[in-house]
Amino acid sequence: MSNLYRLRDFVVAATRAIDGEPPDEAAQLARIRPLLAELIAQDDWLPPDYAIPGPDYYRQYLLHADPLARLSVVSFVWGPGQRTPVHDHRVWGLVGVLRGAEISTSYFASPGGALIAGATERLERGDVTAVSPRLGDIHTVANAYDDRTSISIHVYGGNIGAVARAVFDPATGAQKPFISGYSNTAVPNLWSHGETGRRSS
Amino acid sequence: MSNLYRLRDFVVAATRAIDGEPPDEAAQLARIRPLLAELIAQDDWLPPDYAIPGPDYYRQYLLHADPLARLSVVSFVWGPGQRTPVHDHRVWGLVGVLRGAEISTSYFASPGGALIAGATERLERGDVTAVSPRLGDIHTVANAYDDRTSISIHVYGGNIGAVARAVFDPATGAQKPFISGYSNTAVPNLWSHGETGRRSS
Ligand SMILES: [Fe+3]
Ligand SMILES: [Fe+3]
Ligand SMILES: [Mg+2]
After folding, report:
1. How far apart are CA B90 and CA B166, in angstroms?
2. Would residue B185 count as lying in a domain?
3. What Å distances lie between residue B74 and A67, A156, B7, B188, CA to CA?
4. What pLDDT was estimated at residue B56?
5. Which domain holds residue A13?
6. pLDDT tier, A197 (very low <50, low <70, confident <90, very high otherwise)
7. A-B interface: how many C-beta pairs under 8 angstroms?
8. What's the gap in Å between the CA of B73 and the closest CA on chain A?
9. What is the CATH number of the domain that holds A108?
């Protein structure tokens, strides 16, 4: 699990893909999606501290945040049978499965206010899917397994842990304010090697 | 020591000061120096994990690195009597004393090759000084105390832990290649609160 350079290279490439570019959701998703697919194609880089399931609830470990809040990268760790409430994001998000498998279910508002479950996607290891206000922003994610941990790597077009968003009661459509925070007080040091910024002059 | 928002605010402001700007050393130093002075004016934000001295050598804990290697922020922790070898940087650097006091001594090449000690500066808590290839890039830094820990916060115009630079034998001027790395495998999570990047549309 020591190939942390894969995460570093992803963060560098994803930052380059947004830095100095207009904040265009479709363009950002198109640029970053293949980078995430490449990152999760190998499961040999996530440090063990960011892969520990919680006893009762899923955990979300921040791996990297852009200081200008244009990007965050999060390890979601699902213990057996764990799942999110119905929730939204309010920024674009990409979900890539690193280990195990997950079930993502979309929800849509009905005229009466209740939320109706739409498509259910089973995401296997290596699969990537997207959410956003434009594409459909309300869903649940659940571990596909009730006997093992699954892990997905999520990338968002903002600092998702600090976004004021909502969880929903699907029966009524009622919203509750939701700021997720993160499960961790320290993030991986990606920078012991690699790019230096030194100019050769 | 829980006012970590001070470090977050510094990182955001320093990133804004360089993002989209030409890599002009004098301009970057002029913009970031007062931000560092403000950061070190209060000693209530550095998490204890990044303030632990080593038994034999000084430690350098990465606090933040820009993925595009335009900036790094490092906590240097000096046990009693600890000091650096004579070394250079090859990028601009700012040194601000957070706790205790330090002695910085500049070196200059003599015609015969040996390095001559120049000015010695005693930096008290709250003081900021600069180094760079343009201003004078070779120095030593030492804890001013032999009975207590001192800590300084350094900011560099690159990822200093990965820069290929040199340590010197001052008697002969002989150089040895030097890549410092960092003492820590995890950096503080600054992003549990604060800027979100969410657009209000
Ligand atoms: Fe989600
Ligand atoms: Fe130095
Ligand atoms: Mg670019």
Report:
1. 9
2. no
3. 16, 27, 11, 11
4. 95
5. 5-178
6. low
7. 140
8. 11
9. 2.60.120.10
